[in-house]
Amino acid sequence: MVERTLIIIKPDAVQRHLAGQIISRFEQKGLKVVAAKFLHISKETAEKHYAVHKDKPFFAGVVKYLSSAPVWVMVLQAEDVIKMTRKMMGATFGYDAEPGTIRGDMGCSRGYNLVHGSDSPESADYEIPLYFKPEEITNYDFADEKWLYGKND
Ligand code: IDP
Ligand code: MG
Fold it and tell me: Which of 8, 109, 117, 141 is 20 to 30 A removed from 27 (C-alpha atoms)?
């Protein structure tokens, strides 16, 4: 099923000049960017974003991290995009993320892990409106979709 996911190229990725490389991986995979913004997330929005973790010991830290410097926020759209992007991101912490994943290849920190991706369609439905109005999300076809999303059936 065609789904959307919210991806954030987090503050450490921008500060470490890795944003282009991360976006490039999603682009190379054939995932479609349907919305994107560069912004400094407020503390209030970061608290909403991570509301599911509000009782965890790392909540204050992760809110501070997400709102510490500018980020790229984007909506990607493709069939099964949530499962694909979570696999491409790798495990939560760089030190145990598999090589070949974004987190596994580019980081080794515990809390600073370069990229956020929605973990379910319900999370995506909650997260996307925190950053985008419906009219800010585009709708278009790639010229090579026949080849990109081809099915041998
Ligand atoms: P995810 O980003 O892989 O979905 P979550 O468990 O949803 O991981 O945690 C959200 C974010 O909170 C993580 O990406 C990471 O930045 C931070 N985080 C999670 N667990 C810890 C921790 O134990 N210490 C510090 N930061 C953490
Ligand atoms: Mg999560």
Answer: 109
